[in-house]
């Protein structure tokens, strides 16, 4: 049995030194310093979603997820609230819960409350790229939990996994949370590759390990359009903030934004288009006028595709749920 009464703390697992991480994402996906990036078979210059998650980006994100048309967060939060007791009863004492890309932690709170109510002794690790976001989220825990130890891990989720392997008891059960359409939300090949990596590195050990993964499966394009675009320009500011993040590394460019959906599979993405020829001095690259940068691709895979992903990654699906009001499945 574990008894924790510590105050929450935030451990720097590389969060203060993320420049190399961002540079490598930029060079691989946007600048193509090696070879053209073609995760879906066709080359694309991609602004990796991690760029959207600096402190300013996460504040905008938090506002966006509270906007009336942005159904996803609310629907998912309702689902977790509805299932919190059931989920908690499946979690055994001593479990390590790792919230991968925890954001503002709003959705996880009902699960932690249910664990506390059921007197389950667990260690909760919230992992994110933004220290500010961790500080804001973890403030919610400083109150009255007696059974749950909360720790923030500031850095990437890969660093979080490596840290946990070094620092935490391998015999304890693990539950990984991928909430908010994170894992599985990519072109199929890289989505499966990432899941397979986690299956091998994190889930297939000797411990009783599992992942709770949520995914938006909405394919109604009007709903999608309203969700991302009808929110007083919040979404566009969110995307542009991510682009400014790259400019902090590379220098300024001029772009126009458009957003839209695509079929087969249904996905929503934004595109930044160069309004003029842009020279990226840092790497001697010229992007012609009209060059498009894809940003924030959101694939709307339903249960069948997700089951295929799990199978291809070597994962076994224990249970699946659908959000009470929206088309979201576990
Ligand atoms: C779509 S938000 C989801 C937030 C939260 N899980 C939720 O459902 O509300 C993605 C989160 O993942 C974080 N993130 C993105 N890439 C990351 C990485 N490589 N390592 C750790 N966190 C990451 C972002 O900072 C952001 O908070």
From TrEMBL:
- Alphabetic keyword roster: Alkaloid metabolism, Methyltransferase, S-adenosyl-L-methionine, Transferase
Annotated pathway: Alkaloid biosynthesis; ergot alkaloid biosynthesis
According to its UniProt record, the EC number is 2.1.1.261
- Tell me the enzyme class: transferase
- Known catalytic reactions: 4-(3-methylbut-2-enyl)-L-tryptophan + S-adenosyl-L-methionine = 4-(3-methylbut-2-enyl)-L-abrine + S-adenosyl-L-homocysteine + H(+)
Coiled coil regions in record:
none
Domain Histidine-specific methyltransferase SAM-dependent residues, every copy = 44-327
Question: Which branch of life, at top level?
Answer: Eukaryota
Q: How does the record describe its quaternary structure?
A: Homodimer.
Q: Which family does it belong to?
A: Belongs to the methyltransferase superfamily.
Record NCBIfam families? methyl_EasF
For this entry, the protein name equals 4-dimethylallyltryptophan N-methyltransferase
